[in-house]
Amino acid sequence: MSEYKTVRGMRDFLPEEAKVMRFIESQARSIAKLYDFKEIITPVVESYELLSAKAGEEVKSRMFVFKDLGGRDVALRPEFTASVARLVASTLRTEPKPFRLFSIGSIYRYDEPQKGRYREFWQSNYELMGSNRPEADAEIILLTNALMKAAGLKNLVFKIGHVGVLREIFDQEKLKEKVQNVAMQLMDKKQYNDALKIIEKAEASAKCLTAIRELIQLKGENIFAVIEKMQACVSGFKQAVEAVKNLSEILKLVTESKKEMRIIVDAGFARGLEYYTGMIFEVSVPELDIALGGGGRYDRLIELFGGEPTPAVGVAHGLDRIMLAMQMQKAKPKISEEKTGIIIPIKEELKTEALKIAEGLRQSGIAVEVEVMGRKMAKALEDADRRKIDFAIIVGEKELKEGAVAFRDLKQRSQSTVLIPKLPETIKRKPAKQK
């Protein structure tokens, strides 16, 4: 047995797993089409400077960074948004807005491997750029709900907060951005006491500390009751009041558009990336203690990369995490599979005829393989059964003289003689299998 193994944090997907991953990917593409998001493809490798600009210390510390042969610092992308923002700030800067942009592919972070966490993982990413209105935020949340439902997931929980509420309090207190970022990183990890110590050490007022303490405690499914309490908490911070109002407008749009969604408003919720400026959210299922997707509003990132001031909101969904959630909920993907067949020549000298028949069927869109192991017919049929192949075409001299073959339905255990030109309609007459 080979001693070679996958690199730690990486893994192989066997055919059945790959099939489910491609199903989820197909659902992500369908949702992009339904919401009119256009696909773009950006590089896996970008400059370290771009990817680290607003990634946050936690993400920066887990990036795969290296020097290319020209001595430049580059990295594997730890998320999509920086690449999309770069594109909008440069190539697309004069195009009409809004942009609805969709990306899908692999992402890399040097995390400690554990259930649902790998160093290479897959995301579908949606960015809506050019609108600062609450309906844009609502669309991203509704789109996420639609994708999770399309994957067959149930009992979804949306956790929603607003970074702007916290940032506006910090700004009014004139706390340095670095202090704010450290505090938000700690809040993201639910290390609230440590976050409060950082804020206190930065000489924030008692009023600020009281407001943050109260906001951290505010959380619940009675979402508009939580909003009212948030408004009371931040009453002395003018811009924070506006941020709470913005969150209320977004939630009103979401709940009135999709009443059956389960939403928890969490006033002390923060996310690891530093570029968020407004509403943030994550979606999860009870069976997993990690988010299946998350995102939010970031209104200053494109400007940071040299583009025009462009408000934006986006979300990334973990495709392999969705697959794990589907397994845990026993959600069966509705994959329609074409029937598959094998062509078995009875004698060596009939191999050419077998290949000709196979090519003809493939041109008709029928999936077939030719027996290439040199097995006798009985062994070849036994193997086809074991591999759940649907039908076998047996090429024999007697039938070929009549321009026909023996067609064996391996599911129904029946056999008939079929003229070669009639094979496609014979195969297609029976329904495709559902998985």
Largest sheet: 9 strands, mixed
Do you know the CATH architecture of the largest domain?
2-Layer Sandwich
Which strand order spans the largest sheet, edge to edge or round the barrel? 1-5-6-12-11-10-7-9-8
Rg, rounded, reads 28 Å
CA-to-CA gap between the ends? 33 Å
CATH top-level class of the largest domain: Alpha Beta
What is the strand content? 15-25%
Number of separate strands: 19
Helix share, percent: 40-55%
Q: What is the overall number of helices?
A: 17
Overall pLDDT level: 93
Task: Outline the structure in words.
The protein has 435 residues and is α+β, with helices and mostly antiparallel strands. The protein has two domains: 15-329, 2-Layer Sandwich (BirA Bifunctional Protein, domain 2); 337-434, 3-Layer(aba) Sandwich (Rossmann fold), CATH 3.40.50.800. Helices cover 41% and strands 21% of the residues. The chain contains 17 helices and 19 strands. It has helices spanning 15-34, 48-52, 57-60, 81-89, 134-150, 163-172, 177-188, 192-201, 206-217, 223-233, 238-257, 301-304, 319-329, 351-363, 377-386, 397-401, 423-428, and strands at 38-39, 45-47, 65-67, 73-76, 99-108, 120-129, 157-162, 219-220, 263-266, 279-284, 293-297, 312-318, 336-337, 340-345, 367-370, 391-395, 404-409, 414-419, 433-434. The strands form four sheets. It has a nine-stranded mixed β-sheet with strand order 1-5-6-12-11-10-7-9-8. Strand 17 and strand 18 (414-419) form a beta hairpin. It is elongated.
